[in-house]
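WARN retry 2 of 3 for item q-0093 after timeout on previous attempt; input resubmitted unchanged.
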Amino acid sequence: KKTIYTGRAPKALLDLKATWNSTDDSQRKYLKKLAGLDCLVIDEIGTNREISPREKDLFFTIINDRYEQLKPTILISNLSLRGEDSLEEFMDERTVDRIFETNTFVVFNWESYRGTK
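OK item q-0093 returned
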């Protein structure tokens, strides 16, 4: 059975933050769970335009663990790939390096359907 997690980036970061004050190893368990999934889909990357250095480190840990295991990870974002207001600007350089090295990018650059209603 394939295990897939689909979630929004802000929610995943909130779930991780909830473990920060815990005295057990719940953060490690949560990161291990994400690393072990057959496929991880994270939506709304960059919705919160600024994240803390600690959040960037955690995001790197998620991406790097999956990178090392050659596990598929799908990232969905309205940000550009490079330049101003981009994934490159939003994430840590190490994270971007891994994403750019191993991923195929599919860019949809048409107007938002929601904006037409």
